[in-house]
Amino acid sequence: MRFFQPLKTTLEMIKFEHTVFALPFALLSALLASGGWPDAPTLFWIVIAMVGARSAAMTFNRLADRQIDAENPRTKMRALPTGEITVSFAVLFTAATAALFVGAAWKLNPLCFKLSLPVLAILFFYSYTKRFTSYSHLVLGICLGMAPLGAWIAVRGDVALTPVLLCLIVTLWTAGFDIIYACQDVKFDERKPLFSLPKRLGVRGALRVSSGAHVVMLLLLLVLFVREGLGWVSLAGVLLVAALLWYEHSLVRPDDLSRVNASFFTVNGCISVLLLLAVGLDKLTSW
Q1: CA 113, CA 154: separation in Å to the nearest integer?
Q2: Which pLDDT tens digit goes with each residue over 31-81?
Q3: DSSP string, 54-90
Q4: Residues near 40 by beta carbon (within 8 Å), at least 6 away in sequence
Q5: From CA 126, how far away is CA 144, in angstroms rounded?
Q6: Can you give the pTM of this predicted structure?
Q7: Is residue 253 helix, strand or coil?
Q8: Less crowded by CB within 10 Å, the N or C end of the chain?
């Protein structure tokens, strides 16, 4: 029990269930790369790599930000600031999940293994970007955008336009919703030497940038639709995603951020799963 309780707390701290944000895009990329579902071992190691990478990155982020979190009223009750889990346990968990990611990459193919350490470096680097740039949201987007790119490489061992499009789509989608999420901390950021687009542009300006990022994301989804020769099921999925993004932005106003969590967690979780189901069903029924 001495081990499992800190483990449970750590998984709650990093919101393990939010792996759903990027995992469906990785699975979608793998599906397109293989012309159907990849073989079971490849699919298994892609999922393990995703879980390992995200868990390591999120725990490292909590470690890097633990002093900032302790001062922020919104985050001061997180597990590290309160001492619910120790720094040493979080470090061990980060190391173990990072090793899991590298091991999964090794099982996939040589290129995945060679890229695993640079990918970890980028994931860990993100945790410090808010200390010197207002574009940390874009860096976070790149971190999640690497998921479909990595899944494609896991299946094919190369890079093509399709995974690059998926990478850009996920990057813009993530940057857009992270800007919305960051609006909650604009007053705290103003008091501290921290950077964000809401701090730089104000909440109203930042929400406009978020909307713009999501508009470009939708345009890229249409490019992907044409390039992959997708059918009406995928088009319906894209239209539903557009509706969900509209709904997400309707929940948040410059003078009312009370529904940011609903926007961030519920809507974005639905978007990634919806696209996987729509495009997956479209492709699998046409092959």
Answers
A1: 10
A2: 999 988 889 999 999 999 999 999 999 999 999 999 999 999 999 999 899
A3: HHHHHHHHHHHTHHHHHH-TTTTTSHHHHTSS-HHHH
A4: none
A5: 11
A6: 0.93
A7: strand
A8: N
